[in-house]
Specification:
Blueprint lengths: L2 E4 L22 H10 L5 E4 L5 E10 L6 E9 L8 H16 L4 E7 L3 H9 L3 E10 L3 E9 L25
Parallel strand pairs: 4-5
Antiparallel strand pairs: 1-2, 2-3, 3-4, 5-7, 6-7
Length: 174
């Protein structure tokens, strides 16, 4: 049986198998610790029998006014546990936190334009492409900024696509 629980510092020593995917960004230790300290409610682990880490999600809240939103920094599931709706469960949990705890307008995430399977998955989850960020990944690959409006954005303003691409330095929040 799989359960979702808060990501802990101890998980940093047990999630390497989950991060062995080309599309999964692996960060340095202080980065993960900053998220755990600043946004613990947005750091969740999918755990299987024997306390095996099957996947995780890291996120945060940021912005002001109508740009107040939840952000998915990373969501990944180990290859052997994919196609079991773990990513959907983790995303739903993050969206619930965004909506009920932070009362934000939308959730956003960045995805490599070459990651067709992830883009398709996010579309199934209700996300749409808001804009393209040129050279977002190490200056070499573009990203899509994908968004999903929360109930607070009654008119869906936060997901109306922009007509021109932007560069990373133009992003409102890093």
């Amino acid at each position: 049986m799989t359960s979702a629980r808060r990501f802990t510092c101890d998980d940093l020593f047990h999630f390497n198998g989950v991060n062995l995917d080309y599309f999964t960004e692996t960060y340095n230790l202080p980065f993960y610790l900053q998220y755990l300290a600043s946004w613990p409610e947005y750091c969740l682990t999918a755990e299987g029998p024997g306390k095996e880490v099957m996947g995780y999600i890291l996120g945060k809240s940021e912005g002001e006014g109508e740009k107040w939103h939840g952000h998915v920094t990373a969501v990944t599931v180990a290859p052997e546990y994919r196609r079991q709706r773990l990513a959907q469960k983790l995303m739903n949990d993050l969206e619930d936190i965004t909506e009920k705890v932070h009362k934000a307008y939308f959730v956003d995430l960045f995805v490599r334009v070459s990651n067709a399977s992830a883009i398709q998955m996010y579309n199934k989850f209700g996300y749409s492409i808001y804009r393209t960020v040129l050279g977002y990944y190490s200056g070499d690959e573009d990203a899509y900024d994908m968004r999903k409006a929360m109930s607070r954005d009654k008119e869906g303003k936060s997901v109306i696509p922009l007509t021109r691409p932007i560069y990373p330095h133009e992003l409102e929040h890093d």
